[in-house]
Every structure is written in C-alpha cells, then in structure tokens.
Amino acid sequence: MQTYDIGLIGLAVMGRNLTLNMSDHGFSVAVYNRTYEKTNAFLKSSAQGREIAGAASLEEFTALLKKPRKIMLMIKAGKPIDLTIEALLPYLEKGDVIIDGGNSFFKDSIRRHAYLEQKGFHFIGAGVSGGEIGARRGPSIMPGGSEKAWELVRPILRAISAKIDGDVPCCDWMGTDGAGHYVKMVHNGIEYGFMQLTAESYFFMKKVMHLDHEEMAKYFKQWDNGKLNSFLIEISSEILTVKDEDGSPLVEKILDAAGQKGTGRWTSESAFELGIPLTLISESVFARALSALKSERVSAQKLIRGPVFSFEGRKEDMLQDLENALYMAEIISYAQGFMLFREAAKEYHWHLNYTSIANIWRNGCIIRSSLLKHIKTAFSNNPNLENLLVDPFFLKMAEDNVPSLRRVVSIAAQAGIPIPAFSSALSFFDGYRTAVLPANLTQAQRDYFGSHTYERVDRQRGDFFHTNWTGEGGDVTASTYNA
User: Fold this and answer.
1) Taking the C-alpha atoms of 398, 404, 407 and 408 in order, what is their torsion angle to the nearest 10 degrees?
2) Nearest to residue 136, comparing CAs of 309, 18, 269?
3) Which residue has the higher pLDDT, 237 or 264?
4) Considering the chain, what is the average pLDDT of its residues?
C-alpha cells in the first residue's frame, strides 16, 4: 500500500485548499472527512489526478500514512477537536504528530499538548491565517507545541506558507504548548481592530464628508498604493465598487450587525487577565456587540437627538487627516498587540520572537501590511524594545500623524459620529505618554471606602499605606491589587 506524506481531516473550504496547496508543493496527502460523500466528491473534482487519497474510516486513513504519522486537523474548534483526537488515538503509535490548524483557544492547546505528550504523542497547535485564498496559495502559519515535532512538519508547513522577500517562508516556530494559537489569537484581535478602523474611516467619509461610493473606493485605492498598503484596505476599495442588482452599492444593502467567532473576545479576555490595556481591540469587540443591538438602535434614534453638524473644511485636507489618523491608529493597534505578547511570554514561559512574528505576518495573513516591515526592523534593532511607540521610527510617525488623529476624533465628536476605535487609540496614546495620571484619586477612593491601601510618590514602590479618612475606619486594611 502506498504511504502518504501527511494526512488531513476536515474537507471544508480551508481543508480542501490546504490539501491542494500541499499537493502543489509535491507532498502526497491522505484525506478524511466525517461524511465520506464530501471526501468522494473532492476526489472526483479538484483532487483528481493528484497524489491525494481518500479514506472512509480513521483506521483506513491512519494506515495510509508514513511513520511517524503527521495528521492535520482542519475542523471546528472546541469539543470536535477533542473528540477527533480521542477517535484517532487507538490507531496511532508513539511519536506520531497531531496538528490542530483551526482557531482553537490557546489554553485548550496547552491542555492538549500536555495530554498527548504524556501519552507519547506529539501535538502542534498551528494558527493559520489568510482565509480560503491564503490556504490555497500560501497562508501565514504560526505553529507551536511539541518542539520535537517541529522538525518533522517544518518542511511541509514552510513549503505551503506564503513567502516574503523572495523565498522567506511566512511560517516559523512560535514556542511551546499553546504559543502558536496564542499568536494567532492576537493576530485575530489586531484584525478586529483593523476592520473596525477601516469601517470607521468609511463611516467618516460617508457621514461627515458625504462622499459617494465611487469617491470612497478611489481614496481607499489611493491609500492602498501608499503607506496604508494592506489587505483590508485593498479589499475595502473593491467592496465599495460592487453594485447590487438594482445598481445601488451592495454594501448599503448589508445589515449593519457584525458577527464574531470569539477570537477577538479571547484576546481582550487575555489582556484583562494579564493587566494589559488592550483598549483599541477591546473597543472593536464592543463595537460589534453594539452593532448587534440593531432594533434597539433603530428605536433609540427616534428618541435621542444628535448634534447638527456641517463639514466646512477642504475635502483633500480632511482626507489627508483621515489617512494619517488611520495609519497612526493601526500603529497603536500593533503596539498594543505586542505589549500583550510580552506579558504573555512572561506568564506562560514562552520565548516569543517578535521579529519573526512581524515577518510571518507580512504576507499571507489578513493583517498583512507595509507597516510590518518597520515593526520587524524595530525588533531586529532592539529585541528588548519595551513598546513600539518608543522606537525611533514610530516616534517620528507619531509626531507626524497624531495631530491628524486629534482632528479626526474631534470632528467626529462634534458631528456625533461614533468612532470608538479611533477614539480609544488617541486616548491610549495620550495615556501612555503621560507620566502622571489621575489614578492617585482612584487609589484614594479605594482606600477611603475599602481600606485597600495606596503607595506614595515620596516612598519606595512596594510600601503600602492606609489613611483613616473618616476617623472611624481604624488601622485595619484590606488586600490591595497591582495591575
């Protein structure tokens, strides 16, 4: 019986396209789907004439694979992954590798890694970004887990990934246990931020400047040819040109209630756990939640009046400000993401390579943009860089672009146009650059009503004090919390 280089389970669009991608690069692939009808249909269509074999059972599927077996799961995250792993185990041998290529929660990957390693198997949690086109032509791949298994799967994963700077693969080792899926989770959080910022830019053009869709598409295209070059700007310019059957812009027929699969929320939850101010991404998650309250918003608009506003500035100046503001807000979104990486690396004992992360995001993935080349350079020059915003290049970008961000946020506020991602970007920037914040009053309040204590500016950090503010509280204190 012929043995195949790798096996893939799950023949939805991502699984099918990754299989064809592997085949394009000279790897033979065995495939399995829970319903054999889908496997058979795939074999008779796009897989025909290739070294791709289908199996009707997991026993037959595992028997087709070279040892140590390498099996990639492209199925729904959560319980289906655990059920599939358990179903596979009776047919595997020690040293075999299971790769979860779905959008799994990183703590599930930590658990699965420990469980399989203890049984003598290897587990890799690999974040895969780029959608169906990326899966077919070259995605960005973020693997982490069993380091011994990396040597076994590296030739395949790096071959099928997108390439940058000629032939550099957009795939590199992220770290142990759940590191790969953590990096992918943060990628998706940044994606939430970028999508919200792009939507707010469109909304600003539409509601403040009253541009038509042809004009909006033109300016998005111009931006994509400049410093804002990115996948999401590119597709936005295309979306705005598409007409519905009646000739009107299709985008205006789409209900303004955004869905979400949870990865943005996971990113925010991790930031809350680690005490990192991931404000822009969190506001983007909340913006989707607010959009889902469609019927309430329709009712509220009839009752709550907004300001009367008329834009009177020069269109070209305002559009230049909007471009600069979007550029700066994207920088802040990346900066917050890498802040989260740094804290997560400490918490989970990962050795994340920030230069590598920036590089593998430069092609194949949804958040690819020209900014990532500068981020890669920043971490190459200083691997211990505390924050992107203090890198010399990004300090200059802030000097050049923050004034535009201020003007955009100000005008949107005057017009009553919600732009929460832009607004949170500016607030974060101003908070980060401010040496003294009003948290001293917050600490005094906490000590007043809860005896939570406080630190003093004239004493060393780590010494805590309590004031008997009312004269009735005494000297008993509660526990304190340091973010």
Assistant:
1) -100
2) 18
3) 237
4) 95
483 pLDDT more than 60:
no
395 is written with which tokens? 């300090």
* Cis peptide bond N-terminal to 68, omega within 30: yes
Residue 115: name the closest of 152, 154, 86 by CA: 86
Tell me the C-alpha distance between 31 and 47, whole Å. Answer: 10
**Per the residue annotation, which of 70, 191, 200, 283 is the catalytic one?**
191
What Cα–Cα distance (Å) separates residue 54 from each residue in 21, 85, 239, 385, 461? 16, 19, 37, 49, 64
When pLDDT is cut at 50, 70 and 90, the band that residue 258 belongs to is confident
Q: Which amino acid would we find at residue 479?
A: S
Residue whose C-alpha is closest to residue 264's, from 240, 236, 283, 290: 283
pLDDT above 80 for 479: no
Tokens of 361: 């995001």
DSSP secondary structure code for residue 459 in this structure = S
Our answer to whether residue 184 is catalytic in this structure is: yes
353 within 8 A of 198, measured Cβ to Cβ: no
Token digits for 234? 């590119």
Cα separation values, 284 from 7, 93, 130, 334, Å: 37, 45, 20, 14
Residue type, 293: L
Query: Do the Cβ atoms of 53 and 30 come closer than 8 Å?
Result: yes
- Residue 483, classified by CB atoms within 10 Å of its CB into exposed (0-12), middle (13-18) or buried (19+), is exposed
Burial class (CB in 10 A: 0-12, 13-18, 19+), 141: buried
The fraction of the chain above a pLDDT of 90, given in percent, is: 93
- SS3 (DSSP) at 122: strand
Residues 171-229 pLDDT 10s: 999 999 999 999 999 999 999 999 999 999 999 999 999 999 999 999 999 999 999 99
What is the 3-state secondary structure of 34-53? CCHHHHHHHHHCCCCCCCEE
142 SS3 class: strand
**Could you give the CA distance from residue 421 to residue 278 in angstroms, rounded to a whole number?**
11
Catalytic annotation present for 302: no
pTM (predicted TM-score): 0.94
Phi, psi for 299 (deg, rounded to 5): -65, -40
Q: Which one of 70, 184, 227, 376 is the catalytic residue?
A: 184
